[in-house]
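User: quick one
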Amino acid sequence: MELLLECCGAFVEALRAVHGVATGQLSVQAESMEKDRAERTALFIYTMGRAIHIQNEFVAASFKKHPAIAMVINYHLFGNRVPQSIYDVHMAEMNAHITLYNVWRGQVVRELATLTKKK
Amino acid sequence: MIWSGDFCSAYSEQVDAQAREIARLESNLSAVNGEMRASKVYFVRKDEVWGHKAAIANLRVQEASNERRLLEVTHELAQATVRIEAMALVKFNAPVAGEADCKKEVADLEGKVRAVEGQIYLIKNRLGADLVKFGNVDLESLVDTYVFVKTKMPGDQMTFGCFYDMVAMLDSLMDSDAELSVSVKTGADDSKSMYKNAAESRTSSSFNQAAPAIFSRKGESDIHGGTVDRLFSTVKEHALWTRNGGSQGMKAQLNRELGVTLAHVSKSIVRQPGYGDAVNVAQEYLAQSRKCYQEFVNWSESFYLTIMDLSSVKPDEAWSCC
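Assistant: Done. Structure below.
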């Protein structure tokens, strides 16, 4: 869920950036806007229009090709990658374990064979 | 052979007649030649006359151009003379006239500054807002939108609560008295009376939230400045999102609720009489927001399937990693 969550967050953040401008303008010009209701209405409608414009950009880019989401995916892959050095260390450890396991397995097989002969 | 006298005389007459005829023809020929020569001379003359006429026309055009230029120069000269006279007058009455000129110049500059400020305002409002067009209506700038509101939405019957972007649309699912009470947090607590109806209040509230409240844990709506950590927190497992081939789960539930709510909203928008263009724009907002939500849901599911396909992980693991 993490990656999808981050992608969703990037999408919502892009809309939030547009809303934030209007929110700031509303709080700064609260008094004058109270006087002119049309101005406040225009600000809301215009901001939502811009948000829809951004939504359409995401849709046109099939979401994953949009820079905001592509960046999230790239960072996620980069953050969750296994470095080559660590991979090599783990592979060496794994190979040692496999070798040891094969030795023990050979011993067990031989002991079993001995026991079987004794019976 | 001996010729008789009559025959000889007849023959000589015939020869004479032929000689006369030849002479006449030669005369005619010379006349024709003369005429031809005359014609040739005529045509040459005619060409010469036409050439002269063209030259005369060119000269007249040049003359007209020169006259115009002369007039311009005369005008410029007159202006320059006036300026010189004015300068002489200013020089003569230096203190008073100079002050007046300064005031006029300052007034001109103030006018220019206002014009430039107006242009900057328009340009700032247009930045990043190109292609914002809904049907036949261009809302490219805040000024355009203001004009639209003034001309197409007179009175208080139709408000911005009729307009929905995706966040406002999803927040409309939360419409209830309890949700509306969790409303504006920044700068609007003291001005709840600014809003004409619940829809306006909810839209304003959605502007202050970091994410649509429907994706947050119940009772914990994210406010401005918050994070989106709790986003989709109700969909921790894929089975909660979709079950039984999509007929159950949160996705189906959201679709059902959206269908009902948006049908109601759409009807309420259409019911606004006398707001033809505004109603069309509001419907367009709603349709595009619905489409965007649907596309986003489709993409997230296809992304989940792609991850499973690419990495061959189990469904639970794919859902948790994507």
